[in-house]
Design brief:
Elements (H helix, E strand, L loop, with lengths): L14 H6 L22 H30 L4 H10 L1 H9 L1 H17 L6 H5 L9 H22 L5 H8 L1 H13 L1 H21 L1 H20 L3 H21 L3 H20 L9 H19 L1
Helix pairs in contact: 2-4, 2-5, 2-10, 4-9, 5-10, 7-12, 7-13, 7-14, 8-9, 9-13, 10-11, 10-13, 11-12, 12-13
Length: 302
């Protein structure tokens, strides 16, 4: 005696499968697949997303300052700057405030990219590997960029930045910064700058001006953190240029994310192990040792 077939085991192209669904529930249509190099969002939405990512960071910083300051700060306007740059707790809270800002930014990006779930998120970003740039090539490029960045810093000097002050303020602040640099910043920044902003710019003004636009915006956002160290600012600009060139060359975002992750990860590892390095070494000597080490690793990765 022939038994009835389970509709869930039937081929979607068989006649039996259509017959089994004749009186059943209507299947849900799949999410719309988007070409990452020709996205449905416009330039205005992309720019507003970028502005929103910056504003969210500033707002979260202000929330921390206001609420913590109500309990701890006592003084006038002149003492406020010293309070913000020397109080260890407020510095730590300012760093941690980036976590909700990044999560909210990802929420905004998800809404723009998927149109509230109507389109696929990862495919719209081009979250796949390229035949031109794979995993190990991405890692090797990131290490090479880090070496070049260190060389730029050595050439332009070792001026202290606000980020250096943050790292030196407390061990908790340094570890929190290392965490953000690896677990949230690469994803959020790549989604905003090269996932949403670049393709919208590229469609409107062409590839070359889109690369320039992303380079300028990405670098400007990081200038306050690294001022007045022009070597570090130059390294950030070089990173942005390289990531955007890879995005333009491959049409994919995943290689850019891995490059960004490895680049930040190297710096985070150095932040974590810095207290265990010989105190006799100067910053330039440490940088030279890192360059020597990476120069031996790069040929094996690329």
């Amino acid at each position: 005696m022939e038994t009835s077939k389970d509709p869930t085991t039937l081929s979607p192209f068989s006649a039996e499968s259509y017959a089994s669904l004749e009186h059943g529930p209507t299947p849900q249509p799949p999410s719309i697949i988007v070409d990452p190099n020709n996205p449905p969002w416009g330039l205005l939405a992309a720019i507003l997303t970028w502005i929103g990512s910056v504003v969210l960071l500033l707002v979260m910083n202000m929330v921390v300052v206001v609420f913590y300051g109500l309990f701890k700060f006592r003084g006038g306007r002149e003492a406020l700057e010293q309070f913000l740059t020397t109080d260890k707790t407020v510095i730590l809270l300012l760093i941690l405030s980036a976590i909700p800002a990044h999560l909210l930014t990802l929420g905004v990006a998800w809404a723009v990219i998927t149109h509230f779930g109507k389109r696929t998120f990862w495919s719209a970003l081009g979250w796949t590997w390229s035949k031109r740039v794979g995993f190990w090539t991405s890692v090797g490029l990131a290490v090479a960029l880090y070496v070049v960045g260190i060389v730029l810093i050595m050439l332009f000097g070792q001026q202290k930045t606000s980020l250096d002050q943050v790292v030196a303020s407390s061990r908790a602040a340094a570890l929190s910064l290392a965490f953000l640099a690896v677990f949230t910043a690469p994803l959020v920044e790549e989604v905003v700058y090269r996932g949403i902003l670049y393709p919208a710019l590229q469609r409107r003004v062409g590839m070359h001006w889109a690369i320039v636009g992303v380079l300028v915006l990405f670098t400007l956002v990081h200038v306050p953190q690294y001022w007045p160290n022009f070597g570090v600012i130059g390294a950030v600009g070089l990173l942005s240029l390289s990531l955007t060139l890879v995005r333009a060359y491959t049409g994919r975002l995943l290689p850019c994310f891995v490059m960004h992750l490895v680049f930040n990860g190297i710096q985070s590892v150095l932040i974590i192990i810095q207290p265990y390095l010989p105190p006799s070494l100067t910053g330039e000597e440490q940088a030279a040792a890192v360059v020597k080490l990476f120069s031996q690793v790069i040929p094996m990765l690329i």
